[in-house]
Structure formats: structure tokens, C-alpha cells
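Retro notes, item 3 of 5
We never archived the inputs for the flavin-adenine dinucleotide complex last cycle. Fixing that now. Sequence and ligand:
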Amino acid sequence: MSKIFDLIVIGAGPGGYIAAIRAAQLGLNVACIDDWTHDAGGPAPGGTCTNVGCIPSKALLQSSEHYEHAAKHFGEHGIGVGSLSLDLKKLIARKDAVVRQNNDGILYLFKKNKVAFFHGRGSFVAAVDGGYEIAIAGKDAQSLVGKQVVVATGSSARALPGVDFDEDRILSNDGALRIGRDDGQVPKKLGLIGSGVIGLEMGSVWRRLGAEVTVLEALPTFLGAVDQQIAREAHKAFVKQGLKIELGVEVGEVKKTKKGVSVAWKDAKGQAQTLDVERLIVSIGRVPNTAGLNGEAVGLEIDPRGAIVVDDDCRTRLPGVWAVGDVVRGPMLAHKAEEEGVAVAERIAGQHGHVDLDLVPWVIYTSPEIAWVGRTEEQLKAQGRAYKAGSFPFMANGRARALGDTTGMVKFLADAKTDEILGVHIVGPLASELIAEACVAMAFRASSEDIARICHAHPSLSEATKEAALAVDKRTLNF
Ligand code: FAD
Ligand code: NAI
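Structure as it came back at the time:
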């Protein structure tokens, strides 16, 4: 006889584990199934985000920033470090330890909230009286019945057609985060296909650690989804740091060679070029994970992109089946997955969850960081919306000067008549933290004048936010 749960969540990434915890908090009897396994064979809940995404990439970004600061910037502060060395195996081992702390933290949260965790791969068997039968293959193999089901199976890296990831020389995000784990070597030459979020974050890590990095991007525009004034500023900074970024390219044959990988490509003028590198990271987007879910058994609808079809509330067309996170439409971001997980749990419990996809912030954790929420100037122009813009450079901010990090700016876009904030765009130090104020302001439908009239601590980077809000009415005080 199968165990019966009020809710079965398939996938324990940020969408799934958060949905499970919130539903348990609301009194439901919840099971969560996840198949991620760490190197020692045990369960590793947390999904892409914890295992091969947000957390390990930020651990590497931090280590590589420390290394670059010690190598290039400590001298400005009068600090000498003698001869600098890099123990790459240790650096990667630290990243792996950070990941394991997060895996263990989620297992602890499951216990604390009385979520029953099953390690294995979940798939639909059939619709049964009062719910769905879900089979688990793997360590905890058995079959369960859920009165409701949340699918939170996430996404995987997209490969170039005909070029499989071997995670040795041709790497997805997974292999990109393990470079040097076994041999302790930073590649001399590293190639990346795609100058999106992963391309820039991973490219920055390995450039700082000493690799010569070349990024090949198909689109002629750098960071096309980002406000172009911000993107231009970021591009200038990355090129100055030594990242080679080729735009408007056409990638041709990718071959493994004796020593690495050779990529044939055409530049923006159509000239044939070759890039020879030791390792190649392919970061050209991600595809939703639905294979092996056996959704056909119950009639789960998948769109042509491979995503599960859901309405605005994350309901699939099957009664009692929901889907959240990377496996559905919308930005592929951990905090978006979490918000959907909470909202769905609350709806299942009879409450009114809500997610506003227009107010999901984006952050690219390069140096300088790039962060934004709401509309770009290009989007407002395309919509024909009348707007006012104001920006303030970190160069004129006292805290940024003290930090020695004055690249970039904060930019506000506000409605021309009502002054409601329509978008905030930041490139510069700690943009990831500064953007939170903009999210709060926009959620409360604040005007730029509201921000301009609020007292901000001195000296702080957030004063640049206040000054950018003042700049909307052309009344900055410090620039
Ligand atoms: P996932 O995190 O992918 O989790 C899905 C889980 O379901 C996985 O554990 C998977 O093994 C499991 N699963 C799949 N199928 C089954 C099945 N049939 N049975 C059982 N288990 C199954 N986002 C940010 O917001 N900030 C960042 O800084 C950031 N950095 C990133 C860096 C990199 C390198 C990458 C690749 C991604 C990054 N992301 C970041 C994106 C973020 O990781 C994803 O948006 C997020 O993990 C999606 O959460 P999810 O719960 O939908 O899916
Ligand atoms: P992406 O969508 O950010 O960027 C992919 C890039 O590859 C695009 O610029 C695209 O034009 C280019 N491209 C596509 N096909 C190509 C080809 N054949 N040749 C050359 N260029 C090509 O995807 P990425 O970087 O793989 O990241 C996937 C997703 O993971 C992100 O969109 C984001 O949702 C998430 N992520 C979020 C992070 C964050 O929040 N800081 C960090 C890393 C990933």
C-alpha cells in the first residue's frame, strides 16, 4: 500500500524545497523527492542552485576576487603580501565545503519542518482516486500517492548541436565549477561560448585566477536584455580587465585536439577565425528538465521550448498538479523559483499566494556587479511610454572612493507624469545589495521623489541610489 501525502514535491531545488517547507508550515503532510547525489553517494538537496549554480559560483567569485585584490590592489592600501601563491585544489575544496553546508542545511530544514525526504528520481505513474501515483527510482525506491503534486525539476545546460559536454574539455556549468579540482591547474587559455550571465561570471572567475579568456557571443549587442547604458559601462570595464569579448560571431565546428579544444568561428565581418583553448565552457542558455518525468502518463502539457505549461498561478491543466521554477516560463532565477514555491504552497493551503514577475530583480555577479529591476530605457521607448531618467556615478560617492571601487552608476527611470519608478539599473560595487531598495520601492509603487526624500546613511553606497533619484529631477547634490 503506497504512503499517501497531501502534497508530493518532485525536485528539491529552491523552487521545490521552499514549496515543501512552506506547505509543511501550513499544516500539510508533505513529501519531497530529489535525485541529486554528492560525490560520496549521499543526497544533495538544493538543486542546480546549491550544487552547480548560485552557491558554488559565488564561492569561486569571492575567492577569485580576494586573489585579484591581493595581486593588484592591496598595494594601493600600502599592504604588501610578498610573493602570492594560489592553491587551486584548496580553493575548489572550499567551494565544495560551502556546497555541502548548504545541502546539509536543507536536510536539517526538512527534519525541522517534518517534510518526508526521499532520495531518488520521481515519475508519474497514473492518476488515481484522489490524486496521483508517483514512483521513486533509486535509493528510496517505492511508490507514493500525492493528493496534489508540485513539479520543480529545474533545468540543465543547453549543449551546442552535435557537441556533447564531456565535463573535461567541453564544459557545462558543472565542469566549469570543477576546473583544477584534480590537477590544481588554471588553464592558460579558456574559451566560452555565450556572453550571458554564466559566460560573464565564469569568465571573470577564471580570468582573475590567471587564464586568458575569450568569449564568443552570437548576438551583435552586448547583454541585450540589460539597459544599454549600463551594458556599455560594464563592457568597457570587462574589456579593460582583460576579458576578450567577440560579438556577432558564428560558431562553426568544435573539435577536441590533443591539448584541448579548437573552435572554428566567423567574426562579425564574416572572416574565418580559430580559437584554440585548453578548455571550453558552453553557456548558451538552459533547457527545462522534463525527461524521465513520464508526464505523458497523466497528460502533462509541455510547450515547444520543453517547459511545462502553467497559468499565472503555476497551475498546470491537470487538476492538483502545479509546476514552479526553471521548468516553467519566466526568468530562470533561484529567487523567482522560491517565490513561486511559496505562492503555490499557500494556494494549495487555501491562501492567496502572489508573484509579480515584473518585479523579479536580476543580478550578474561580475565585478562591477550589474543589477536591475523593472523596465529598461529601450523597453520604455519601444512601449512609447513617456519617462524621465536620472543617474549618479559611483565616482562621486564618498564610500565608493574609500572602497577604491568607483566604476559605474545607479540609474532611475520614472514615469514622466506620475514620477512612479519604472526601472532601476545599477552597475557598480555591491549592486546586488543596492537593488533591494529599488525592489521594495517599486513593490510599494513609490515615486523617485519618495526615494529622494528618504534619509540614507552617510557614507554609504546607497547614497548613490538617493542621488540617482534626485537626478530624475536634475537636482543631484554631489555631482
Ligand atoms: P533546480 O535548482 O534545477 O532543482 C531541480 C532539482 O530537481 C534538482 O535537484 C534535480 O536533480 C531534481 N530533479 C529533476 N528531475 C527530477 C526527478 N524526476 N525526480 C527527482 N528529482 C528531480 N540564479 C540566481 O537567482 N542567482 C544566481 O546567482 C544564480 N547563479 C547561477 C549560476 C549558475 C552557474 C547556474 C547554472 C545557474 C544559476 N542561477 C542563479 C539559476 C538558478 O540556479 C536556477 O534558477 C534555480 O536553481 C532554479 O531552481 P529550481 O528549483 O527550479 O530547479
Ligand atoms: P544566458 O541566456 O544568460 O546567455 C546565453 C548567451 O549565449 C546569450 O547571450 C546568447 O545570445 C548566446 N548564445 C546562444 N547560442 C549561441 C551560439 N550558438 N553561439 C554563441 N552564442 C550563443 O544563458 P547562460 O549564461 O547559459 O545562463 C543560463 C541562465 O542561468 C541565465 O539566463 C540565468 O537565468 C541563470 N543564471 C543566473 C545567474 C545569476 O542570477 N547571477 C548566474 C548564472 C546563471
